[in-house]
Write a structure and sequence with these properties.
Four copies of one chain form a homotetramer. Chain A has a five-stranded antiparallel sheet. In chain A, a hairpin with a 3-residue loop joins β3 (about 75-85) and β4 (about 90-95). Chain A has helices at about 25-40, 45-50, 125-130; strands at about 5-10, 55-65, 75-85, 90-95, 100-115. The first copy, chain A, is of the alpha+beta class. In chain A, about 20% of the residues lie in helices and about 40% in strands. The termini of chain A are close together. The first copy, chain A, contains three helices and five strands; from the N terminus they run βααββββα.
């Protein structure tokens, strides 16, 4: 698989708010769906996201909301890795409607041990596969 | 504690949809918050809802949406038990805005064992306390 | 189009709760996505759901939760009309995982005028098309 | 009112995910509730957030997730203005559990005209009141 995952999505009523546009926090859900599909496309499904001893959690993020997505829009959520640390993965993510960029963000995911929620090294097989995707 | 729990809530932008009213599925969230506070008021907090071996899950529900709740509304979610079975609890629930009834529902909660998700008897101490609330 | 719409969905982390299963209110979101696609498949997209003078809103519903949907599950949400009144539409809806029925519900949608939120007749062209789908 | 608004919140099951902690996007909901209460405390309720011609929308944000919030936690969401531009307001926001800082973020809100979603000057009376809060 090449570097960028593209996930087509439809905007439903549940996604909107009284401003008649998508509620801002919901963009983060689209980004997470795209990261999940990115990991799955690289062979790391549910088993890796919630394995026995480790877990991937969102560590930090930044987002710019450029144009609003609206009810019924067909959009594309994207995910690609821009930085791979020993215990963290940084994704660049976008929400696009055709040629228009609606929202972009960077999301840093940390690998933590499940008991104490402390940073731990990303498993070797994940590192190997993901570093080949950059 | 008497039979009915009253939980005051404020409607925020996250709760609304592009129809400018509260998104219908969100009423179920308010109902669950009220049930959680009902259980807590009777001495059964987090420990009981997710104990080592059993879990309470929603088994079935019915709801009528009478009038819409809107942004900024101050509403009251209510919970009271109307039926107590050996493995299930049925709540009558309302969402009110002042004197107006906006939504009413009945929600049946089942006690299940966590591994197989099969019905199991409600623990004796829960039965004792809850039956006194009816 | 025949009577039943089938919408394939993936369960993401956003859909789950601390019980490790899909949060009960989220099934209603899947049902609404399926109804929206049902209406779109019959030619009634966004324009009809939020037209200038009328709006479709959920009037009442009942649901049974038979088996839990879990993270990463691939499921099918369905929608088909079982009753068509002059001002309301009743859908039978299911969530299935392969052959398993996870959840079923009946959802009654009312046609209301936007200003006063009072029941009004469903537009003739909608009636004609939908009645052919039953 | 002094500069920082504190909004007490309870974490409910709807807020959590299968990782048994609060789903990351939900922190943004808590932040928005705190900003809404901040605006209301300064005299700007629903009328100002969705007035006839202008609307406040989230323009950009950054967040760090330091420690997870969990089911049943009692937390405090905070909002205070750290920068006031002619068409934007930047809030510093926190989620705290007692003395612990769980999450902090900066959220930049833009004032836009409702029709074209273009930046416009914040109304004078809002500017006057908010600048006194810094």
């Amino acid at each position: 698989m090449t570097g960028e995952l593209l996930l087509p999505l439809r905007i439903y009523i549940e996604d909107t708010d009284a401003g008649r546009i998508v509620y801002h926090a919901n963009y983060l859900k689209y980004f997470e769906r795209a990261r999940t599909e990115f990991m799955r496309a690289h062979g790391f499904g549910k088993g890796y996201i919630f394995s026995a001893d480790m877990m991937f959690v969102v560590h930090s993020l930044s987002t710019e909301f450029l144009k609003p997505a609206c009810l019924d829009d067909e959009v594309i959520a994207t995910a690609r890795i821009i930085k791979l640390g020993s215990a963290s993965i940084t994704f660049e993510q976008q929400l696009r409607r055709g040629e228009e960029l609606l929202c972009r963000g960077e999301v840093c995911i940390a690998c933590v041990d499940k008991q104490r929620m402390r940073a731990q090294r990303i498993p070797v097989e994940v590192m190997k596969t993901l570093s080949a995707s950059i």
